[in-house]
Design brief:
By secondary structure, the chain is α+β, with helices and mostly antiparallel strands. It is 60% helix and 12% strand.
């Protein structure tokens, strides 16, 4: 009576558990609820038959039997939902259901629709009730056989050891259920009373699998049980030896011998229990379950082997080799994050396969992927079993799941450095077929942590090699471009030199002819042609000035524009240069202001070239300042240099034009200067002259408000009497220009 009551309470507790929480698989949970409901009804009937067998009618007893048969139907449906294998379910349900229905209709105590005369089979007479019982047993056998067949086929086809372990629990449930039904069919009272408790064990096992994701491995339990059993026997042996040894050796009193023996046993066990337990476990693992490994030894060996590895492929090989030596795996790979991981956003994983054949396709995981979140934020391994059955990963993109499943790996362990996912350790199944236990996962996680530093170093080394290759290519391309620029510069210099020298002769002839015409026109021509002749002479003079500028520029380009150095009075040079320019400014109605100190020191330089530089700066200010504008010219000296500056309130210069302002031939590209004569060589000549004196030029300008140009040169003059290379002069900035170069 007690055993059926305990079983009844157990089934009720399982039903309550289902109402409180749901399992991983909704369909399996509902099927489990149906199975437990039938079990409660069946166990109640068994309990009542034990408590008051005379009070039960034969009809109630029959209903209890049919409830037991119906449990086999719900168990088949539960197995199909549990294994997610619905194919073929209809066939089994059809055969078994027809048998159960036929038994129900033939049973004379339940249905009186059919009456069959007794049948004689080989001397055995079978009445209608016997036929109903045979059909009932047939239906039960069909459903039970179907459940066993389905579970065994799935067990043999399962690739993942964790999935196989999950099916073992279903097989355990089937075994206990068959044993319980067999005991009930015997009709023996003790067997009937114990059968509900045995079937409760099977129901508890299937409920445990339905509500738990990480299951205790049955083989691991078996291994631990053997280990503790052997350890218990050894402990008992040590205890008996410790009790009997003192009295045998020293012939002491029995009570004293027992006390001494107990103390001796306590000391021995306190010192040797932990090493003895570990040694026992290792021996059992080695001789009964295959190879084992020493955790600390594996880590020491691994740390020593990866210490100086800077190649990613070699590092991947060492990682998988160490894991293979410890766990005897079938396949493995190292998945490395390309481009790093900043802790957010997507991650691209590239596989480095060293065991087995896998695709080298690079997979990009979205930042919101549940797989990436689990690996990156939780830092925990993912098993293929998790991918197949854990509800969280069902939301992952199908392409990501397919990519991982195509590798046929069992465990994916994250490799992290500074909260960044830099790689994943992918490990295949063990050759022994065993799942990865908690100790194995701890080992893999520790190896992944040690791999992080080596992987970062290898990636850094690879980046440096790649950067060195890119820089080498860039230097080669830069050298080629530099040679091309030098050739173009020589070609430009040769072209300018040839053109200017060829133009000088015809312009000299034209100028000579115009001088003769001017003398003749003073006495022999009317005023109007004479005025036109003067304008023609002025135009020719302007053209000659342009040619002279080109000649000067060409001399700098060809390194032939040598300075004629000497000590000069900079103040006198300025007055001589500015006097004609002031007249030009007044002609244009400009307010021309000059601020020159009386005590400017003498300096060492080329007076003619410096005068040209001053002339071009002031002439530029006059050109680009409208009538009625103002120009300020000032000069000052410091202990080691002379500074010259000219400021105007003219049109100003756009910021995007300042970069090319000091280059030659830029005037024609400037829309602000349209209608102003010249080739745009003045500022280029200023820069070359000042740089040849080891000085600097600068400019500050704002469009519509005016410009300030200036330069300074050292009082001591240039260190070497050579012309600077124009290609090496510093280009201006957008805020203000400053250029200084030593001579070439």
């Amino acid at each position: 009576m007690i055993l059926p009551a305990v079983a009844f309470l157990g089934y009720c507790l399982l039903v309550i558990l289902i109402l409180i929480r749901r399992g991983m698989q909704i369909n399996a949970t509902w099927m489990l609820a149906g199975y437990l409901g039938m079990s409660v009804f069946w166990t109640l009937g068994v309990l009542l038959s034990v408590v008051q067998p005379s009070a039960l009618t034969f009809r109630w007893n029959k209903i209890t039997i049919y409830a037991g048969a119906s449990m086999s139907i719900t168990l088949l449906l539960l197995a199909q939902a549990f294994l997610q294998r619905w194919r073929g379910a209809l066939r089994w349900l059809l055969f078994g259901g027809l048998g159960l229905l036929a038994a129900f209709l033939l049973d004379p105590e339940i249905s009186r629709l059919i009456n069959i005369a007794p049948l004689a089979v080989g001397g055995l007479v079978l009445n209608q009730a016997d036929l109903a019982n045979i059909l009932l047993a047939f239906a039960w056998g069909i459903f039970t056989l179907a459940t066993l067949s389905l579970s065994w086929q799935e067990y043999r086809q399962a690739r993942s050891p964790l999935h196989r372990n999950r099916i073992r629990y279903l097989l355990l449930t089937m075994t206990l259920t068959i044993i319980g039904d067999g005991l009930y069919i015997t009709g023996n009272s003790p067997c009937i009373q114990i059968s509900p408790l045995i079937k409760l064990g099977g129901a508890t096992a299937i409920a445990y699998v339905t509500f738990s994701h990480h299951l205790t491995d049955i083989k691991q339990v078996y291994r631990k049980s053997i280990s503790y059993a052997i350890l218990t026997l050894i402990t008992i042996g040590i205890f008996l030896l410790g009790i009997t040894l003192p009295s045998t050796l020293f012939h002491t009193d029995q009570g004293l011998s027992t006390t001494l023996g107990a103390a001796l046993v306590a000391i021995v066990l306190a010192v040797s229990y932990q090493p003895l337990r570990q040694a026992t476990q290792n021996l059992i693992d080695q001789f009964l379950f295959g190879k084992s490994y020493e955790y600390d030894r594996v880590l020491r060996n691994y740390g020593r082997r990866i210490a100086d590895i800077l190649d990613l492929t070699r590092l991947a090989g060492v990682v998988i080799d160490v894991i293979d030596e410890a766990l005897d795996i079938e396949r493995g790979a190292l998945l490395i994050s390309e481009g790093g991981d900043e802790g957010i956003g997507k991650v691209r994983l590239k596989p480095y396969a060293v065991r087995g054949t896998i695709s080298d396709e690079i997979m990009e995981f979205r930042g919101s992927s549940p797989l990436l979140i689990h690996l990156r934020l939780r830092g925990l391994p993912i098993t293929q079993y998790d991918l197949d059955f854990q509800a969280d990963f069902e939301k992952a993109h199908q392409q990501e799941r397919d990519w991982l499943q195509a590798m046929h790996m069992d465990v994916f362990v994250p490799i992290q450095a500074k909260a960044r996912l830099i790689g994943v350790l992918a490990v295949g199944a063990k050759k022994s077929g065993e799942p990865y236990f908690s100790d194995d996962l701890d080992l893999l996680s520790t190896l992944a942590d040690q791999t992080a530093v080596a992987l970062e170093n290898a990636r850094l080394f690879e980046d440096l090699v790649m950067l060195n290759s890119v820089l080498s290519q860039a230097y080669t391309a830069l050298g080629k471009a530099n040679r091309q620029l030098q050739e173009m510069d020589k070609l430009k210099s040769s072209f300018i030199s040839a053109i200017t020298h060829e133009l000088r002769t015809p312009f000299a002839n034209i100028d000579f002819s115009l001088q003769l015409l001017e003398r003749y026109a003073q006495t022999n021509m009317p005023p109007e042609p004479t005025e036109q002749l003067k304008e023609l002479a002025a135009g020719i003079q302007t053209a000659r000035t342009m040619i002279d500028n080109l000649v000067t520029l060409a001399s700098f380009f060809s390194k032939q524009g040598e300075l004629r150095l000497g000590w000069l009075d900079f103040s006198k040079m300025l007055r001589d240069t500015l006097l004609p320019l002031k007249t030009v400014a007044e002609t244009k109605e400009l307010d021309f202001n000059i601020a020159l100190p009386d005590n400017l020191p003498t300096m060492h330089g080329d007076q003619e070239r410096l005068a040209e530089a001053v002339h071009h700066l002031v002439q530029n200010a006059i050109k680009f300042t409208a009538r009625g504008g103002e120009i300020w010219v000032q000069c000052w000296a410091t202990a080691d240099a002379i500074y010259f500056e000219v400021k105007d309130n003219g049109v100003g210069i756009p910021a995007d034009k300042l970069d090319t302002l000091w280059d030659g031939f830029t005037q024609m590209a400037d829309p602000l200067r349209r209608g102003v004569e010249g080739l745009g060589l003045g500022l280029a000549l200023v820069k070359y002259v000042v740089s040849a004196h080891d000085g600097e030029v600068w400019v500050n300008s704002k469009e519509g408000e005016g410009s300030t140009f200036g330069f300074h040169v050292p009082l001591s003059g240039p260190e070497q009497q050579e012309t600077p290379d124009p290609a090496q002069l510093i280009r201006p900035s957008s805020k203000g220009y400053s250029s200084k170069k030593n001579h070439v």
